[in-house]
Amino acid sequence: MIPEDLRYTAEHEWLAPADAGAFKVGITHFAQDALGDIVFVQLPEVGATVKAGDSLGEVESTKSVSEIYAPVSGEVVAVNPALEGAPELLNSDPYGEGWLVQLKADDPSAVDGLLDAAAYRELTEAA
Predict the structure, then answer these.
(1) Domains of the chain
(2) Separation of alpha carbons 18 and 127, rounded Å
(3) Which residues are listed as membrane-spanning (predicted)?
(4) Is 82:94 a contact under the CB 8 Å cutoff?
(5) pLDDT in tens for each of the 127 residues of the chain?
(6) CB atoms < 10 A from the CB of 33, how many?
C-alpha cells in the first residue's frame, strides 16, 4: 500500500511530480489510518509560501487534530477544492483524489532528500 513512485517524509506526507514543475502533496495511507475518520481539512491559500518542515495546514479527525508539514520549501500553486466538501477523500483515496496541495518547489532537487518507498516502508514497519 506504499506506492513506489512517490517520495515520503517521516511525518507521513507524500510528494509526487505534478504539472509545470510543481509537486502534489498528500498524507499517506499509514497517516489516514492512524487518524481515523477525517472530518475537516484546513489548507493554506494559493500563493502562500512555505518552508520545508513548516505547517502546511491541519487535518481534523474524530480522534485528533494533526498538523500537515511541507515536505519541501516553495509556493502553494493549487489547493484541492474537493476536500472542502469531502474531507473523507483523505481516507478513501489518499494517493489519488485525496491530495492536499500542489507546491512549486524553490529547489526541485530537495525532493531527492526525501524518503523513497523502501525507506518509508521501513519507517512504518518500525512504528
Answers:
(1) 7-112 (2.40.50.100)
(2) 30
(3) none
(4) no
(5) 899 999 999 999 999 999 888 999 999 999 999 999 999 999 999 999 999 999 999 999 999 999 999 999 999 999 999 999 999 999 999 999 999 999 999 999 999 999 999 999 999 998 7
(6) 13
Report the distance separating Cα 61 and Cα 107, nearest Å: 32
SS (H, E, C) 14-34: EEEECHHHEEEEEECHHHHHH
pTM over 0.90: yes
How is residue 60 written as a grid cell?
Answer: 481534523
Q: How far apart, in Å, do the first and last CA atoms of the chain sit? A: 16
Would you say 122 and 9 are in contact if contact means Cβ atoms under 8 Å apart? no
Nearest by Cα to 10 from 120, 111, 126: 120
Backbone CA torsion sign across 10, 13, 16, 20: negative
What is the reported pLDDT for 40? 97
Instruction: Quote the CA–CA distance of 49 and 72 in Å, as a whole number.
Output: 11
